[in-house]
């Protein structure tokens, strides 16, 4: 509802209550949501503190919250991307997908490969960006989720437009049904 301060307070209360009750699952979820809201609100330093604390907490419980730790690494990478600290962002994005067994691929992996493609795009490394997009494409095909296909198509169209490639962008958007077959004007 746009009541950001109330949302932040509610999540801080949830973090404290879950710590007192020993409910680790609720605690890490509340910390993740709190950090995301802080990022959206421009409070990057505070969000980074939350995520770093979460990583320290998770490392004291090896293996139990493996997936959440990977998502938290991706959230830290998002802060580094916002700060244009691309080497650090790449490091945390790679941490987000390392050690994941092939049979346990998740939306986090798909999303992380898209973010790596974005990072390489920002660096002007189109070859690596395209490689990451191909990995994301393969994960999208294997998930059988329409949402992955839509996210991938919009991402590919965006990056094509950033490269000045309007016709490929149009084809990506047509493929997912966002635009009709009317040609773009170059």
Key descriptive features of the protein:
elongated, 186 residues, mainly alpha
Description:
The protein is mostly helical. The chain is built from 9 helices and no strands. It has helices spanning 4-21, 24-40, 44-59, 66-82, 86-97, 107-122, 126-143, 146-162, 166-175. Helix 4 (66-82) runs antiparallel to helix 5 (86-97), helix 5 (86-97) packs antiparallel against helix 6 and helix 6 packs antiparallel against helix 7. The radius of gyration is 18 Å and the shape is elongated. The protein starts with a helix and ends in an 11-residue tail after the last helix.
The largest sheet is:
none
Order of helices and strands: HHHHHHHHH
Helix content: over 70%
Radius of gyration: 18 Å
Q: Strand pairing plus helix content: what structural class?
A: mainly alpha
Please give the alpha-carbon distance between the first and last residues.
40 Å
Percent range for β-strand residues? under 5%
Mean pLDDT: 84
CA-based shape: elongated
The number of distinct helices, counting runs of at least 4 residues, comes to 9
Question: Count of DSSP E strands?
Answer: 0
Low-pLDDT regions:
none
């Amino acid at each position: 509802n746009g009541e950001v301060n109330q949302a932040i307070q509610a999540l801080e209360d949830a973090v404290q209550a879950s710590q007192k009750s020993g409910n680790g699952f609720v605690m890490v979820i509340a910390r993740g949501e709190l950090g995301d809201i802080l990022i959206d609100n421009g409070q990057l330093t505070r969000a980074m503190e939350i995520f770093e604390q979460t990583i320290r907490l998770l490392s004291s419980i090896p293996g139990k919250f493996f997936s959440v730790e990977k998502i938290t690494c991706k959230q830290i990478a998002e802060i580094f991307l916002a700060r244009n600290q691309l080497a650090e962002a790449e490091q945390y994005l790679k941490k987000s997908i390392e050690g994941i067994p092939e049979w346990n691929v998740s939306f986090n992996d798909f999303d992380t490969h898209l973010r790596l493609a974005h990072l390489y795009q920002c660096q002007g490394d189109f070859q690596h960006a395209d490689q990451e997009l191909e990995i994301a494409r393969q994960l999208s095909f294997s998930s059988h989720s329409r949402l992955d296909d839509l996210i991938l198509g919009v991402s590919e169209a965006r990056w094509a437009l950033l490269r000045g490639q309007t016709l490929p962008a149009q084809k990506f958007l047509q493929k997912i049904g966002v635009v009709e077959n009317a040609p773009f004007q170059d």
